[in-house]
């Protein structure tokens, strides 16, 4: 394969869709990691045959499903140039994943953790990992022992915890992969006028619906992801949090390296509990 290869989770709607389309225009072959085959087929039709697009079925809320996706990808590919952890979920009421983990944390952190660490061998020098986080991480009241089964549930706070986890993971991954020439950065896409978090009847959904006319367009929201995935300006830059194509301010918790290591250890333990096998990068 002569084209660079980009893997994108959650590519069938919102900023993931725009990211996939725009990267295809830049000549990236695409690995589209998603649950809904029909939506992926619609995206593939929109992209056309200018590049290769490959569907990998995966439910990020299930460790076994992500493990199976990793195996499938490793069987099909020898390299990934850009890995974009884009998919995100906000759950109005408390739910648990098939693994007994709070569903927002399971989908937004554990899924990307298992996927990314499982594919590290395909990330060659110069490869980039791009993690879509959020300014919602500033709302996070973070306690490692409350992530798997929080005793108090408010959707935006729990979502904020998962987004803080995204940044902590991104930073720890950056430290671990630095000597291999692989970069890892997180970003805030802005508050985007998509259907994300707008379904339901809770306060967060009501807010999203009310203020949607004032939010960024989906194309504007995808701009920083595309920039980190493809721009030569950020080649070699790692361990940063970007807002609007610039290095931005993150919370003090997001800069806490000890907390990042605790989160990594917890993530490994959860995978081992489920599969009986260690997971690390």
UniProtKB/TrEMBL annotation:
Claim: Oxidoreductase is one of the keywords in the record: yes
Family stated for the protein in its record: Belongs to the short-chain dehydrogenases/reductases (SDR) family.
Official protein name in the record: Short-chain dehydrogenase
Keywords recorded for this protein, A-Z: Oxidoreductase
GO molecular function, one term: oxidoreductase activity
Superkingdom, natural source: Bacteria
Any Pfam family matching the protein: adh_short
InterPro entries: NAD(P)-bd_dom_sf, SDR_fam
């Amino acid at each position: 394969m002569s084209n660079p290869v980009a893997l994108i989770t959650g590519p069938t709607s919102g900023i993931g869709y725009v990211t996939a389309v725009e990267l295809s225009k830049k000549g990236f072959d695409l690995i589209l990691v998603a649950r809904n085959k029909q939506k992926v087929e619609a995206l593939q039709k929109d992209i056309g045959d200018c590049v290769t697009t490959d569907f990998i079925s995966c439910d990020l809320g299930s460790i076994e499903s992500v493990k199976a996706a990793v195996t499938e990808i490793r069987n099909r590919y020898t390299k990934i140039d850009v890995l974009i952890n884009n998919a995100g979920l906000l759950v109005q009421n408390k739910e648990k994943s098939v693994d007994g983990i709070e569903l927002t944390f399971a989908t937004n952190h554990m899924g990307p953790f298992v996927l990314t660490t499982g594919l590290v061998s395909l990330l060659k020098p110069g490869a980039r990992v791009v993690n879509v986080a959020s300014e919602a991480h500033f709302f996070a009241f973070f306690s490692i022992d409350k992530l798997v089964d929080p005793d108090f549930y408010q959707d935006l706070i729990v979502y904020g915890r998962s987004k803080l986890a995204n940044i902590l993971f991104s930073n720890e991954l950056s430290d671990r992969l630095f000597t291999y020439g692989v970069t890892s950065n997180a970003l805030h896409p802005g508050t985007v006028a998509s259907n994300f978090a707008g379904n339901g009847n809770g306060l967060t959904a009501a807010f999203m619906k009310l203020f949607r006319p004032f939010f960024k367009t989906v194309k504007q929201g995808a701009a920083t992801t595309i920039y980190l995935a493809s721009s030569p300006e950020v080649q070699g830059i790692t361990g940063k949090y970007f807002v609007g194509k610039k290095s931005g301010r993150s919370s003090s918790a997001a800069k806490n390296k000890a907390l990042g290591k605790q989160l990594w250890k917890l993530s490994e333990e959860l995978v081992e509990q489920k599969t009986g096998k260690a997971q690390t990068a």
